Amino acid sequence: MSAEMLNEETWTSPQLAAAFPDRSTRMSVNGVIGKSMVLLVIIFALAAVGWRYAPEFLSVANSLWFLIGYFVLIGLTLMVVRNPAIAAIVGLVFAVINGMWIGAISRIYEESFEGIVGLALMGTLAVAAAVLVLFLVVPFRATSTFVKIVASLTLGVALLYLASWIISVLGGGTSFLYGTSNLALAFSLFFMAVAAANLIVDFTNIERGVALGAPKPMEWYSALGVVSTLVWLYMEMLRFLAALAARNQGR
């Protein structure tokens, strides 16, 4: 979703001008980092709650609520694109819901494959650090063409996940996406690559927003984009490592 939130038109859109007519204070990189840390701290705190109550959260009775929550988050993100002024509120809601969801899911994976959550966290940090080095040292920036490609790929991934969910509800198999075959692993690697590409888009547009003197409240908007990408990257890393572990154990 960050490709939808942070793109070429983000800093010149009429929605931005309408939401923040007062530009006496400007966004900064440090401000975005600080607000990203706030969202991550909330996610980690609520992840502990999700971990503690995972059986209850992931019961059949509550699974529908998690699905509803997922679509609510998508809807809220689209609302933020149209009205950046609500980014702080949506960011907090995002952190709470995702924190509980990530914690519950992570516990299930950890109980199946001991130590996998720590590996997934380290893998996520490693990929994010590599992208940051690529951005700062090379330096690599997202062009307008790159942004369009990443946005299209991100939408394609979302539609694929939606299609797989519909197939599973109808009783079909989704091992091509969630199994341990070479194809499933290739899909997982591809999804992680798309998530990493979204980080490049995030970093480029934050840099552009600072250079254009975007209003300070846009720090929340930018932080939400970065954190949503990191959450997605972590979940893909967790799924990929679990598939590898299951494959090695012959499951």
Please report the total strand number as a whole number: 0
Described by its quaternary structure, the protein is: single chain
End-to-end Cα distance: 33 Å
Silhouette: globular
Approximate helicity band:
over 70%
- Report the order of strands and helices: HHHHHHHHHHH
Radius of gyration: 18 Å
* Unreliable parts: none
Indicate the mean pLDDT. 84
What fraction strand? Answer: under 5%
Number of domains: 1
Structural class: mainly alpha
How does the major sheet shape up? none
Helix tally?
Answer: 11
Please describe the structure with a list of short key phrases separated by commas or semicolons.
mainly alpha; 251 residues
In short:
This protein is mostly helical and 251 residues long.
Could you explain the architecture of this structure?
- The protein is an all-alpha fold and 251 residues long.
- The protein has one domain.
- It is built from eleven helices and no strands.
- The protein has helices spanning 2-5, 14-19, 29-52, 54-57, 60-82, 87-112, 116-137, 144-169, 175-178, 182-211, 218-248.
- The radius of gyration is 18 Å and the shape is globular.
- The two termini are 33 Å apart.
- The model has no long low-confidence stretch (mean pLDDT 84).
